[in-house]
Write a structure and sequence with these properties.
alpha+beta, Phosphoenolpyruvate Carboxykinase, domain 1, Phosphoenolpyruvate Carboxykinase, domain 3, Phosphoenolpyruvate Carboxykinase, domain 2, 3 domains, 9-stranded mixed beta sheet, 30 strands, about 25% helix, about 20% strand, globular
């Protein structure tokens, strides 16, 4: 046991409740990791990949019912329903805790209970927070070892009385004596619960072993619980990448970016600029914890220690840095397996191999109508694997610009800048992506709003979240806070083809953004914000027509009239709690369009 009385009492309580066969305190050593990985291979839970092609790497296959975050089974449990707000699933603690206590009772029978102390952020840093995850899943332990800073140094801090977030997880599959353990144990969907108790700084997750449902340092702690801590303590926990950019003169700037899923966040975090002399480095691809410091500037740090990325669509063309990042010491989940014991996923190569073992463990042959990998297949790699990891990745860095964005085939121009920080809060609140025919949805063509790319991750009432951004504004001034922009790489032409080439060419837009943060790039005012003067945009060696550029930067009044009507409709979720900052900014937008 530890010297932390609170932690010891909790461990004893959970051990008594869950009745595991063994208890292991994770010390975070490489030997522990290697031994547990080998145990998973020997027990048929993982496949060791070809050490010559993919050293020290594993492939796991989940149960077909356990492949992604389950938002419908994710809960914010607060005493008052208002505190969860209209965008979260709410159940009162008095109702939810007894239900989950019943599920956890004896849930770890026949299993080992792992106690994983971990730090979100560099160990001991003022921006960082400590958690302890108790789990009966070796997969969770291995992934948490990569994704967070685990082990004895955090135990030392706990022994000295440091506070911690309680993170309890079980796969929900107790074993009877002699029962064979499946490769991926989990509970039925109706028994899955990913529950957050912000008033207790506590997370209880039952029944799922996958990703953010089970790696409780990730979305559960780093966003849902941390966003509530941030509101109480005066900082921000955001779903944002952090990118370092160096121009040809050696000037360094840092930007953050918030995008919904499938909108290129990881690709931007690992961009290879096409502009000569420009250099990009990443500090993180998913989460930023941000505080206004004494100089009035907003500083950000990535609390994670690894990448948990989607494999699908990752290729030498789209993201060569990501491919280099997963070259070794990586855990893959639900990718396909090649005949030479390597992994494959859709778009990795132009043509699929003739034969693969698919993510369900079955033979797959080229020409099949069924894809061999799961669309949400993942890789887990250490940050230090990334060849363009910034040396400042464990330091808070001053942010010059915040980017919001979404996948919008029409209406939204390639780039526009907010008129001020308050206008930027409004821009963040209306971001979203258009529902496409790729999904079976009655609302095809409509916009799914995802404010600040935080819709599934805000740990409290969304109205209070918006007003907290206003609190951050009042900690500083427009002159010192980051400039706010909206990007849309996904505008399409009349033939439904993407107009902007994207990927490394996005550096041309980043260049204009950084020039705007110094107030010396030319721009044109529009009702929605400032867009580039195209004649002064760096389009050197880029083959793109004037007509295409006109469409990319078009601000069409009729389209924006529809957009404003859509925003009006969306804001009804707030009922009588719509923050004044949004009400005022929407009024100003209508005035600029004379609507």
């Amino acid at each position: 046991m530890t010297k932390n009385v609170s932690l010891n009492d909790w461990i004893t309580e959970i051990q008594t409740l869950c009745t595991p066969d063994n208890v292991v305190i994770w010390n975070g050593t490489q030997k522990e990791y290697n031994d547990l990985a080998e145990d998973c291979v020997n027990n048929g839970k993982a496949i060791r990949l070809n050490p010559k092609k993919r050293p020290n790497s594993l492939l796991f296959r989940s149960h077909p019912s356990d492949v992604a975050r389950v938002e419908k089974r994710t809960f914010i449990s607060t005493t008052k329903k208002y505190d969860a707000g209209p965008t979260n699933n709410w159940v009162s603690p008095s109702k939810l805790k007894p239900i989950m206590t019943g599920l956890f009772r004896n849930s770890m029978a026949g299993r080992t209970m792992y106690i994983i102390p971990f730090s979100m952020g560099p160990i001991g840093h003022e921006f960082s927070k400590i958690g302890v995850e108790i789990s009966d899943s070796p997969y969770v332990v291995l992934n948490m070892h990569i994704m967070t800073r685990t082990g004895s140094r955090i135990l030392d801090m706990l022994n000295n009385g440091s506070e911690f977030v309680k993170c309890l997880h079980s796969v929900g599959y107790p074993l009877k004596p002699g029962q064979i353990d499946p490769a991926w144990p989990c509970a039925p969907m109706e028994d899955k619960y990913i529950s957050h108790f912000p008033e207790d700084n506590m997370i209880w997750s039952y029944g799922s072993g996958y990703g953010g449902n089970a790696l409780l340092g990730k979305k559960c702690f780093a966003l849902r619980i941390a966003s509530n801590q941030a509101r109480n303590e005066g900082w921000l926990a955001e779903h944002m990448l952090i990118l370092k950019l160096t121009d040809p003169k050696g000037n360094i700037n840092y930007i953050t970016g918030a995008f919904p899923s499938a909108c290129g966040k990881t690709n931007l975090a690992m961009i290879n600029p096409s502009l000569e002399g420009w250099k990009a480095e990443t500090c993180g691809d998913d989460i930023a914890w941000m505080r206004v410091q004494n100089d009035g500037r907003l500083y950000a740090i990535n609390p994670e220690n690894g990448f948990f990325g989607v494999t699908s669509g990752t290729s030498e063309k789209s993201n060569p840095v990501a491919l280099a990042t997963v070259k070794d010491n990586t855990i893959f989940t639900n990718a396909a397996l090649t005949d030479d014991m390597d992994v494959w996923w859709e778009d990795l190569t132009e043509e699929a191999p003739n034969h693969l073992i698919d993510w369900k463990g079955k033979d797959w042959y080229r020409g099949s109508d069924i894809r061999p990998d799961h669309p949400n297949a993942r890789f887990t790699s250490p940050l230090t694997n990334c060849p363009i990891l910034a040396k400042e990745y464990e330091e808070p860095v001053p942010i010059s610009a915040i980017l919001f964005g979404g996948r919008r085939p029409t209406t939204i121009p390639l780039i526009h800048q907010s008129y001020d920080f308050l206008h930027g809060i409004f821009i963040g609140s209306i971001m979203g992506s258009q529902i496409t025919a790729a999904a079976i949805d009655a609302n095809i063509g409509k916009v799914r709003r995802d404010p600040f790319a935080m819709l599934p991750f805000i740990g409290y009432n969304i109205a209070d979240y918006i007003n907290h951004w206003l609190d951050i504004y009042h900690q500083s001034t427009d002159a010192l806070l980051p400039k706010i922009f909206f990007v849309n790489w996904f505008r399409r032409d009349e033939n439904n083809k993407y107009i902007w080439p994207g990927f490394g060419e996005n550096s041309r837009i980043l260049k204009w953004i950084l020039e705007r943060t110094k107030d010396y790039a030319n721009y044109k005012p529009t009702p929605i914000g400032m867009i580039p003067d195209v004649a002064r945009l760096d389009l050197s060696n880029l083959k793109i027509s004037k007509g295409a550029l006109d469409t990319l930067f078009e601000v069409n009044r009729d389209a924006w009239t529809e957009e404003i009507n859509s925003i009006d409709e969306y804001y009804k979720i707030y009922k009588d709690t719509l923050p004044n900052v949004l009400k005022n900014q929407l009024h100003l937008l209508k005035e600029r369009f004379k609507i």
